[in-house]
Design brief:
By secondary structure, the protein is mainly alpha-helical. The protein is built from 22 helices and no strands.
């Protein structure tokens, strides 16, 4: 069964006329008619958009398209469109077919695109070792190429995989290579994203001064571009180590008050502001900041909501309000989904202080030994107030 027949059957199952389906899918009636009758092969990017608009499952049409298609570049285009749509399994299937088709006919013109996309798909699936293999193939493929931009992109992706595979020092060197190449090409946004990724590795290694400088440079280069808010947030967080918590508070307040930044960035700023205020002993302000941010909790990831509740519970204990701390602790325990290990450890300690049942989630001894962020505060509370708030 060819792809046109499949699309026609799916349209009829939905009870749509060809005019209605074309209108919903963003194509013309004549174009859809030619695709359904086999007079025209569907454009891969259009096919992904059209089927998503009509909620036609990918597994219904993907196999017919792949079995019918013999042109490598169209399979690569399909893989890229599916990757962009977040369907990584289907994207890998299409790209694997393109890879073996290219090997069979000896045409290596699209190898670089295939390697790049397969690496990105595997990275998105968090298979970093496999992603690194594809990016290494890409590096070999472009080694003698005159395409300087592709070489820079290759170094950037290699660095990302290395940083996720425990090879941070190698990653930092690759990020520098990529940033230098983007700078020579005057590709400022790409350079900004590279510096942002490098800063994230630096902060993970506790190199706060260097990460602060990288975040600031990234924020400058990404003005008005995606990830600008992330760079501003990173610069604000590292200000604590570079200029002190009071300076960080001012930067975080500016981010929260900037309506041009997206909700998630501003919520992350609120979470970090609450933690900084708590470190300054300004517990009531910290709780107010958390409560204001949680007004938009339906739009926030579970992990971030849980982190803000954990911060709030610690502040309530510091304020001597055990009842409010217990209420927030129970709210924290009721949140489903993935939570940060450090927050779980902190709330388990706090539950002991408050005489309440601990969260069901467990953490490893390695994490428990780190004593970082909220967990270290919970331990201090346990040491300072072992009996005061218990019931």
């Amino acid at each position: 069964m060819n792809i046109g027949t499949v699309l026609r059957e799916q349209r009829l199952k939905l009870g749509l006329s060809i005019t209605e389906a074309a209108s919903r899918g963003g194509v013309t009636r004549s174009y859809l008619s030619m695709v359904e009758t086999g007079q025209r092969a569907p454009n891969p990017e259009m096919l992904v958009r059209f089927t998503r608009a009509l909620s036609i499952p990918v597994d219904v049409w993907l196999e017919p398209f792949i079995n019918e298609e013999r042109r490598c570049h169209r399979l690569v285009s399909l893989g890229g469109a599916l990757y962009g749509a977040g369907d990584y399994v289907a994207a890998r299937h299409a790209l694997s077919r393109a890879y073996f088709l290219g090997r069979a006919d000896g045409d290596g013109r699209y190898n670089s695109e295939i390697y790049l996309l397969l690496g990105r798909v595997r990275y998105a699936q968090e298979h970093y070792g496999l992603a690194l293999r594809w990016f290494r193939r890409l590096a070999r493929a472009v080694g003698h190429s005159s395409d300087r931009r592709l070489k820079a992109v290759t170094d950037y992706n290699l660095a990302q995989c290395m940083s996720k595979s425990g090879r941070e020092l190698d990653a930092l060197a690759k990020f520098d290579d990529a940033a230098g190449q983007f700078r020579s090409l005057r590709l400022w946004s790409e350079m900004g994203r590279t510096l942002l990724a490098k800063a994230n590795v630096l902060i993970g290694r506790g190199m706060y001064h260097k990460s602060h400088e990288a975040y600031r440079r990234a924020a400058y280069l990404l003005r008005g571009k995606p990830f600008h808010g992330d760079a501003l947030l990173g610069a604000a967080i590292t200000t604590v180590a570079v200029e002190g918590p009071d300076a960080a508070v001012l930067r975080l307040y500016r981010i929260i008050g900037d309506d041009r930044l997206d909700t998630l960035v501003r919520a992350k700023a609120s979470s970090n502001l609450a933690m900084t205020l708590r470190q300054l002993g300004r517990y009531k302000e910290a709780v107010q900041e958390v409560n204001a941010a949680l007004v938009s909790r339906a739009m926030l990831p579970t992990r971030l909501v849980a982190a803000m509740l954990a911060e709030s519970a610690l502040c309530y204990v510091r304020m001597g309000d055990a009842e409010s701390a217990r209420r927030v602790l129970r709210e924290y325990k009721a949140i489903p989904g993935v939570k940060d290990d450090q927050d779980i450890a902190a709330m388990r300690i706090l539950a002991r202080v408050l005489g309440d049942a601990p969260p069901n989630e467990l953490v490893s001894k390695a994490v428990a030994d780190e004593h970082g962020y909220r967990m270290s505060e919970a331990l201090r509370i346990l040491q300072e107030f072992p009996l005061r708030t218990r019931v």
